[in-house]
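WP5 quarterly update. Target: Seed maturation protein. Source organism: Medicago truncatula. Length: 134 aa.
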Amino acid sequence: MSQEKPRRPEQEPIKYGDIFNVSGDLSSQPIAPRDAATMQSAEDRTLDHARKDGPASLMTSAAQKNEDAGFIDNNTATNIARNEGVAVSEINNGGKRVITETLGGQVLGKYEEDADGAKGTKDANSKHAGLRAV
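Structure tokens (predicted):
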């Protein structure tokens, strides 16, 4: 007989405020699959790849857990993502690339890398990523 503790079912969905340092309406919204896919697409378009440690990756994992627990379906998107959008921007600043990822105008991730692609400090603005601010 297994001595494993039975898994307790999730009582509520994972929300943006559980993962990211955001406020207002965004904080209380469940992380949705369509939001994650939109962020993934924005990362792909801007950076030519998705960051393994970026907001899209965190959002995808959380959205999958929300879907698996039955809180949302795979076509769900928040009104904030739908109406205010997601953005990934990159600027070069003195030999450094500064990448900022936003949802509804709130920063989900900000990274600094050397212009040659070497990673510098990063801040996923995540409560769980263990990353520090730029």
